[in-house]
Structures are given as C-alpha cells and as structure tokens.
Amino acid sequence: MAETILVTGGAGYIGSHISKALALSGYVPVVYDNLLSGHRELVRWGEFVHGDICDYTALSLAMRCHNISGVVHCAALAYVGESIANPDAYYHTNVTGPLNVLRAMQACGVSKIVVSSSCAVYGHADGAPITEDTPLQPISPYGFTKFVMERMLDDFDMAYSVRSAALRYFNAAGADADADCGEWHTPETHLVPRIVMTALGRIPELHIFGNDYPTPDGTCIRDYVHVTDIAQAHVNAMRYLSEGKPSCKVNLGTGRGYSIKELVDAAEAMFQKKIPCVIHPRRAGDPAALVADARYARTLLQWMPVCSSLDAILATGMRFTQSFIGHD
Ligand code: UFG
User: Fold this and answer.
1) Active site (annotated) includes residue 142
2) Percentages helix, strand, coil for the chain, rounded to the nearest 5?
3) What are 186-212's pLDDT values in tens digits?
4) Ligand 1 pocket test: which of 190, 263, 313 has the largest number of ligand atoms within 8 Å of its C-beta?
C-alpha cells in the first residue's frame, strides 16, 4: 500500500514541488500549511489540511487522521534579512515548529522525517566548495534556527530513534517544467524571480546588492539548484530512510557557482532583452560566495541535479511567472 507523507509547508514554493514529486513516485502527500506564505492554488497533489506547525493539537490530529508514515518538514520562515530584524518570529516558527513536529511524530509512532535545512548553517564560507564537514557557524538568526533544528534531530535520534535526513539547500530556483507550481512570494525578494520580473518590465530595474565583494566581478556567487532537482532529493531521502539507513545531513547543490552578473548576462541572452541594473549597497547577512561540494548526495542518496542549468532555471522561472503570477 502507498505510504502517506505529511508535507508541512506543502503549499509553498519548494513544498509544492516536493508534493508533486512524491505523488509521481507513488507516495500519497498530505499538505499541512497555514497559508501564511503558501498558496492554496499550489496544493494539487494531495489532501490539504489548513494548520500551523506551532499548533501541536492540530498537527498531531492531522498526522493521526491521515495515518502518516513519514514527514517532509518544509514549513518555516526563510528570509535572512527578516530574521535579523525579527528573530522572535524565527525562533518561534523555525524552532518551536520542528519541535512540535517531532513531538507529534512520537505521539503518532512516526519515525522518519526529511527536513528543509539550508546552506545558511555554514555562515561565511571561505569561497572553497562547502562539504558537510565544513564547520557550522551560522551568521543570521535564520541560519542559527536551522542549526538548532539539526541538533534537535540528532538528539531525537539518539534518545527516541527518530531517523532524519536534513537536506541543506543551496539556492533553490526555477519552476516546475509544466508550470504547475513555481516561485511565488509576496513580496518577492529572490534574485531569479526579480530578474524575470525585470525582463518582463514588471519592475523597472534590478537592484544588485553590492559589487565590492571579493569575487571575480565583485558580485555575490551562489550555487543555484533547480527546485525540481531539490524535490527529487526528498523522494530519494525518504526511500533511503525507508530502507532503515542512518540519519544524515546532506548538501543539495550543483558544485558550480554563478555571480549575480553572470546570471544577468545569461538572462539577457536567453530573453533577448536588456535587464537594467542598479548597484545598491550590500544586503545584511549575505556571504560573498556559497558553493556546495555536492558529492555526498550523489553517493548517499543517488541524487544528481539534472535540470539545474542556468537556462533551465531561467526558462522555467519565466514560464511560471508569465502563466501563473499576474501583475500586482
Ligand atoms: N540579490 C540581488 N538583488 C535582488 C535579490 C537578490 O542582488 O533583487 C542578491 C543577494 O544579495 C544575494 C543573491 O542575489 O547575493 C541571491 O539572493 P537570494 O535572495 O535570491 O537568495 P539568498 O542567497 O539570500 O537566500 C537563499 C535562500 C535562503 C537561504 C540563503 C542562504 O533563499 O532561504 O540562500 O544563504 F537562507
């Protein structure tokens, strides 16, 4: 019989792609989301339960009623800058939230969980590709909450045998190839959708935050991973845990970084449009370069990014924004 997986945050950007990937792989996703940043329209691959991860009673009821056998935990607040301005909300949602998820799992006898972690747990890397053994020195409250969540998973494994896979995303980008789901934040602060919105003329110019970083062209370097690849990694990780394998922490990146200017150049070539850019001061909490050493995911989870070229990211991002997100 197909396993039912609770996807917290399943109405969000990454959670909706994960729900689709789970459904395509024979699982039954049940989406649990408070719709604070998620969208009901993106819940298309399973039942929807409207609830908050900080509401323990509703969460455990959802797990029990749906006979859940595993959890994918994505629900979180995820803006670095906002976490610096409002750490209270971040500790509440990103620490109390996963604690509730783990407690509800125990109450319902569920013992496997795949969670959204982040490369933000590493803080300022020295520019070299980041392995899973790189010291964890988060520099923002957001990164620190993900670090605490990972520690909680270690402790729950040791004490209660809850097995987990913490997937440390680098920069998720792009959208579903069928434009069934995609990146849809309000306000939208992420680079790829901002580039697409500039190309479409929906915003007049792209602000580039800093061109004085110690990188070849002075702009920040990130490792952009297609969200469909990220979603598939959750399916692989759930299968891995179902085989009884031990808890793990794994980078999800491509191993190749691109600067902001390189992304803009690629977008201008792809969309055949000039993208007006204006240099602004650095944004608080931005490390100069974050690039994954992605080898461990390959050996452990048999995961390789297959649709993470810049062209695929930009093309799918453009298609979703054009077809799904209207003008504000
Ligand atoms: N940037 C711009 N202009 C914009 C938007 C972004 O110059 O309009 C720059 C940012 O300063 C950064 C890069 O583009 O240097 C990427 O920014 P994003 O906001 O797209 O992504 P982040 O790297 O800030 O954030 C991502 C995830 C977070 C995660 C973080 C870890 O979205 O959840 O990586 O560093 F925490």
Assistant:
1) yes
2) 40, 20, 40
3) 889 999 999 999 999 999 999 999 999
4) 190
Mean pLDDT score of the chain: 96
> Apex CA 172: angle with CA 168 and CA 176, to 5°?
130
pTM of the model: 0.97
Tell me, rounded to whole angstroms, the distance of Cα 11 from its chain centroid.
13
* 263 in the same domain as 162: no
pLDDT higher than 80, residue 251: yes
Length of the chain: 328
Nearest alpha-carbon partner for 294 in 250, 263, 261: 250
Catalytic residue from among 142, 169, 213, 224? 142
Residues 32-50 have pLDDT tens digits of 999 999 999 999 999 999 9
- Residue 279 falls inside a structural domain: yes
Q: Check residue 328 and give its pLDDT.
A: 44
Decide whether any atom of ligand 1 lies within 6 Å of the 283 Cβ: yes
Q: Which atom of ligand 1 has the smallest separation from the CA of 80?
A: 36
Q: How many domains does the chain have?
A: 2
Cα atoms found within 13 Å of the Cα of residue 24, Cβ hemisphere only? 12
Expressed as residue numbers, the domain containing 271 is 191-222+256-292+307-324
State the pLDDT at residue 326.
Answer: 63
What whole-number distance in Å separates Cα of residue 310 and Cα of residue 211? 21
Ligand 1 centre distance from Cα of residue 100 (Å): 28
